[in-house]
Amino acid sequence: MTQPIIIGVSACLLGEHVRYDAGHKHDRHITDILGAYFTFVPVCPEVGCGLPIPREAMRLEGNPAAPRLMTIQSRVDRTERMLVYCAAKVGGLMSEDICGFIFKERSPSCGLTKIPLSGNGVSELFAIGLFAHEVVRCFPLMPMEEAERLHNPRIRNDFIERVLLYYRKKDVKKESCMDHTPLKANNLLKYP
Ligand code: SF4
After folding, report:
1. 61: in domain
2. What is the domain count for the chain?
3. What is the pLDDT of residue 186?
4. Which ligand 1 atom sits closest to the C-alpha of 20?
5. Is 45 in the pocket of ligand 1 (CB under 6 A)?
6. Domain range holding 55?
7. 109 ligand 1 Cβ < 6 A
8. How many secondary structure helices (H) and strands (E) does the chain include?
9. What is the pLDDT of residue 50?
10. Enclosing H/E stretch for 20
């Protein structure tokens, strides 16, 4: 039986009420169109790292190479909590064998591109969300997109093709690993 092709998705895009204001950002391009091809693993890093719903809005601040995740009004630094979660969650995603990720744009946790950095005294400095950064670091070749871009049919079709290709390559790798296992075992038996 063919294995489902699993991709990670920011949970609010699937209609889960996980946003800071207890709302969601259900995106039907994802659930109705991409849902025909892929099985989704929802991830909300802000709820996953233990923050409540609703919660105070946050933003990225400081150095683009090591931005801090700060609550906007009360000035609480959530960076360490988020980084600990990210490291653990990405390990979990590796064992789920994901083949792609769709991120919510403009989020200090999930945004994949151009999240404005505050509090550095320089305008026009950008970073990427802390969770998105960890996914990119650990899956450098895996297809990823922000949800809004997938409204464009050309970009969406391209994403589908890239995920299918990534899936097939992973499958071939797994098969070739399996092929080699008995050979090694035989060799060990013959030549101890
Ligand atoms: S953008 Fe990411 S962190 Fe924010 S609510 Fe959606 S899934 Fe959660």
Report:
1. yes
2. 1
3. 34
4. 5
5. yes
6. 6-190
7. yes
8. 5, 8
9. 98
10. none
